[in-house]
Amino acid sequence: MARKKGEPECCFDCVPCSEGKISNATDSMECTSCPEDFWSSPQSDHCVPKKTEFLSYHEPLGICLTTTSLLGTFVCVVVLGIFIHHHSTPIVRANNSELSFLLLVSLKLCFLCSLLFIGRPRLWTCQLRHAAFGISFVLCVSCILVKTMVVLAVFRASKPGGESSLKWFGGVQQRGTVLVLTSVQAAICSVWLVSASPMPHKNTQYHNDKIVYECVVGSTVGFAVLLGYIGLLAVLSCLFAFLARNLPDSFNEAKLITFSMLIFCAVWVAFVPAYISSPGKYADAVEVFAILASSFGLLVALFGPKCYIILLRPERNTKKAIMGRGTET
User: Fold this and answer.
1) Does residue 120 sit in helix, strand or coil?
2) Which of these, 290, 272, 298, lies nearest to 117 by C-alpha position?
3) DSSP labels for 165-217?
4) pTM
5) Cα 307 to chain center, whole Å?
6) What GO molecular function annotations does the UniProt record carry, in alphabetical order (predicted)?
7) Any bridge partners for residue 33, and if so which?
8) Residues 6+ positions from 157 with CB-CB distance below 8 Å
9) Is the pLDDT of residue 108 over 80?
10) Which residues pair with 48 in a beta bridge?
11) Are strands 199-203 and 210-216 parallel, antiparallel or unpaired?
């Protein structure tokens, strides 16, 4: 009831309650606000639970991203099986088979970690998603960086007086470098989780009648350092591979690495503005898309040509053929 000014008390207007408020009694003088997780019904006579929104496994977008993630994992397993089965062939041995195996395992982890971004955010998924993402990608990029450095070292060792350069890039040194680079990211994630851990958050600012479940990163600086470290290693890998791009074709993995890292960097440069401007579940979808796109880019660019030769052009999978391409060039 809204009384009319200057009129007798019996004169009033019937005014509907505003959104978020209800009145379930006749001739009520005021409206009652709904609790935080509730909203007014269309008739404004009772409160109803607010709708919830998050990137779900049951909606088309979530199903598409989940299917793509599992497909990428399956392709990694298949390629790993091909490489293990043909581990003694020249093209696998010439491309540093141990690091290639480790790179495929890390790519599989990259595909799987994207599943943590789908589903209702919980404390453990919010804490684990970015840590798993950061460590998996650093392990992946570290393998690529070390492979590039080995390519340069092998080429230097083939020149007079350059034999000593290979002693710094033996199997132990390669594994140790990957371990140290990955441990730095693990330390960054640990400090981030201890100091300002990501937490699930119910956001009601986007829609008054809807609760958007999301993970707040906790520390923007921590998230920026995590991405920045991945970017630093990616830029170094791209730089070293670019320097080695004109080496003889027997060392042509540098060309594949250059192309793959350009794809990787392009995806993550485009990710930042898209992530900042995307609200709610679409921010998670953008991050998952960036993870899947960059992972598929690395997988196809680095292992596609090798699988093509192994499976469809076995006559080129010989030491003579590999060295012959370098001679012709």
Assistant:
1) coil
2) 290
3) GGGGGSHHHHHHHHHHHHHHHHHHHHHHHHHS--EEEEE-SS-TTEEEEEEE-
4) 0.83
5) 25
6) G protein-coupled receptor activity
7) 21
8) 163, 165, 166
9) yes
10) 39
11) antiparallel
